């Protein structure tokens, strides 16, 4: 009797564990972002316009915000090393929640190689950063693949993302320099926002946007506490133990070593979920 | 995420008003509509989310705007003469998504609800594990009852 119960329990564990581990749909895919590049068809039009690539840290970066645990955050610099940005015309439209790769009809390299950008550049009302402007065949560019890679120079050398700024709460002010060396590879669908982007008309300029949601890391005091933006973020408190002489200087390796595993895992997921196209989510691809 | 269904509409017609004003003529006819269901990943509906519909004819100017209901549903009647991709944008509080509904002149129309065409698909691993779990459910149930039966038998002896 006991043996049979144990057998049932054991087999149940074997079957249930993968379900618990898999949870919701996997945010990461082993499928390369540009699987269909070998079958790319060029647009059958001679008409061209300009495709402008912009990077946007949104008002969270430009104007600052209050984290879910009450820290007023302002950024001096948000260095990101953007790389290998490709715009696609796809049919059918790419769905980042599906297993299907981008079905490219036309692709345009918006950024070959990498470029360090500062998302906090400009004043609080600054427009998104213009990265490149390239000539492109007319049509609807409804998918975007892009990467964030480690920088090989500058202030953010060896890091993919470097956040510099100030955090203030109840009269306590801390400077911070938080560095992430995690490289990111995204495959995204169409921009989702007030307007539609990526529609290139003859002799006209259209825009495509890489968007970064840093509230995914720190949470947002303006959102309900049970909103995913708060339940899936770590806030700013976990960085406080790394403060020394009023300044927090920390990298991902140090965080991994010192944060409790659950908090670090939440941080890792939040970093992976930084990349968007406006409000549209992207699929996180493997980096190889 | 889509299915065709019959929708009864009530038309408030002012085109055939008689000589006396303020008269109202109510008519109805069955039409075919597209229903959108908008949920968060958690399954919670996007209540009262902003919906923008773009027809195949104009991808920049909204063909229709509206809001989802309390259950995340939005119903609209596309112009069947506009064949091609209909893009539907749903947004709420910084969350948003665009889905595309291809409508051709050969699109079959059905009058009964079909399975939702889902954007949130399961991975092959998840599908396999779910299938195995289903099979194990039957085996486990059988083992449970066979064990119970044997226990009762043992208790009697």
Secondary-structure map:
The complex is a heterodimer of chains A (288) and B (157).
Chain A: H1 2-22, E1 28-29, E2 48-56, H2 58-63, E3 65-66, E4 72-90, E5 104-118, E6 129-137, E7 139-140, E8 143-148, E9 161-169, E10 172-180, E11 184-188, E12 199-200, E13 205-212, H3 215-218, H4 228-231, E14 243-244, E15 247-251, H5 252-258, H6 261-272, E16 275-277, E17 280-285
Parallel strand pairs in A: 1-17, 2-13, 10-15
Antiparallel strand pairs in A: 2-6, 3-4, 4-5, 4-8, 4-9, 7-12, 8-11, 9-10, 11-17, 13-16, 14-15, 16-17
Chain B: E1 4-13, E2 25-37, E3 50-54, E4 64-67, E5 73-76, E6 84-92, E7 95-103, H1 124-156
Antiparallel strand pairs in B: 1-2, 2-5, 3-4, 3-6, 6-7
Task: Report what the structure shows.
The complex is a heterodimer of chains A (288) and B (157). Chain A has a 15-stranded mixed β-sheet that branches. A two-stranded antiparallel sheet of chain A has the order 7-12. With 288 residues, chain A is an alpha+beta fold. The longest helix of chain A has 21 residues. With 157 residues, chain B is of the alpha+beta class. Chain B folds into two domains: 116 residues, Sandwich (Immunoglobulin-like); 36 residues. Helices cover 21% and strands 34% of the residues of chain B. Chain B has one helix and seven strands. Chain B has a four-stranded antiparallel β-sheet with strand order 4-3-6-7, with no helix packed on it. A three-stranded antiparallel β-sheet of chain B has the order 1-2-5, with no helix packed on it. In chain B, strand 6 and strand 7 form a beta hairpin. Chain B is elongated. Chain B starts with a strand and ends with a helix. The N terminus and C terminus of chain B are likely disordered. The interface between A and B is large, with 36 and 37 residues.
- Spans of chain A of at least 5 consecutive residues whose pLDDT stays below 50 are 10-41
Q: Give the structural class of chain A.
A: alpha+beta
The average pLDDT value of chain A, as a whole number, equals 88
Beta strands of chain A, count: 17
Percent helix range of chain B: 10-25%
Approximately what portion of the residues of chain A adopt beta-strand conformation? 35-45%
Distance between the termini of chain A: 50 Å
Shape of chain A: elongated
> What structural class do the secondary elements of chain B suggest?
alpha+beta
Order of helices and strands of chain A: HEEHEEEEEEEEEEEHHEEHHEE
User: What's the SSE pattern of chain B?
Assistant: EEEEEEEH
| Amount of helix of chain A | 10-25%
Please count the beta strands of chain B (DSSP E, at least 2 residues each). Answer: 7
The two chains with the largest interface, and their residue counts, are: A-B, 36 and 37 residues
Rg of chain A, Å, rounded: 21 Å
Oligomeric state, counting identical vs distinct chains: heterodimer
Residue windows where pLDDT falls under 50 for at least 5 positions of chain B: 1-18, 109-113, 118-124, 152-157
- The structural domain count of chain A equals 1
What percentage of amino acids of chain B are in beta strands? 25-35%
């Amino acid at each position: 009797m006991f043996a049979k119960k144990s057998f049932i329990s054991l087999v149940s564990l074997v079957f249930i564990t993968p379900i618990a581990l898999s949870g919701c749909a996997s945010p990461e895919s082993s499928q390369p972002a540009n699987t269909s590049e070998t079958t790319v068809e060029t647009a059958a039009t001679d008409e061209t316009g300009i495709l402008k690539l912009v990077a946007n840290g949104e008002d969270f970066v430009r104007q600052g915000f209050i984290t879910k645990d009450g820290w007023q955050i302002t950024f001096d610099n948000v260095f990101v090393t953007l790389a290998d940005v490709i715009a696609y015309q796809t049919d059918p439209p790419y769905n980042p929640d599906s297993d299907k790769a981008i079905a490219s009809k036309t692709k345009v390299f918006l950024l070959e190689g990498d470029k360090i950008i500062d998302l906090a550049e400009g004043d609080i009302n600054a427009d998104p950063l213009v990265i490149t402007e390239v000539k492109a065949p007319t049509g609807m560019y409804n998918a975007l693949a892009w990467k964030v890679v480690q920088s090989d120079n500058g202030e953010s050398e060896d890091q993919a993302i470097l956040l510099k700024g100030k955090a203030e709460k109840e009269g306590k002010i801390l400077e911070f320099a938080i560095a992430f060396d995690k490289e990111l590879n995204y495959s995204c669908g169409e921009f989702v926002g007030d307007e539609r982007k990526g529609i290139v008309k003859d002799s006209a300029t259209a825009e495509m946007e890489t968007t970064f949601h840093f509230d995914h890391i720190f949470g947002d005091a303006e959102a309900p506490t049970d909103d995913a933006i708060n339940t899936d973020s770590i806030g700013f408190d976990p960085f406080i133990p790394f403060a020394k002489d009023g300044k927090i200087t920390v990298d991902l390796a140090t965080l991994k070593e010192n944060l409790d595993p659950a908090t670090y895992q939440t941080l890792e997921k939040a970093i992976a979920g930084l990349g968007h196209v406006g409000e549209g989510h992207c699929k996180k691809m493997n980096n190889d | 995420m889509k299915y065709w269904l019959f929708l009864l509409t009530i038309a408030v017609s002012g085109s055939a008003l008689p000589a006396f004003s303020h008269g109202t003529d109510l008519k109805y006819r069955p039409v075919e509509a597209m229903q959108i269901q908008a949920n968060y990943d958690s399954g919670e509906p996007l209540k009262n989310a902003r919906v923008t519909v773009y027809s195949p004819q104009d991808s920049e100017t909204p063909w229709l705007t509206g809001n989802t209901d309390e259950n995340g549903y939005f119903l609209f009647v596309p112009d069947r003469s506009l064949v091609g991709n209909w893009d539907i944008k749903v947004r709420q509080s910084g969350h948003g998504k665009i889905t595309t509904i291809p409508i051709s002149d050969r699109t079959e129309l059905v009058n009964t609800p079909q399975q939702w065409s889902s954007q949130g698909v399961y991975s092959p691993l998840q599908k396999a594990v779910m299938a195995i779990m289903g099979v194990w459910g039957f085996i486990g149930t059988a083992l449970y009852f066979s064990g119970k039966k044997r226990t009762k038998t043992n208790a009697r002896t």
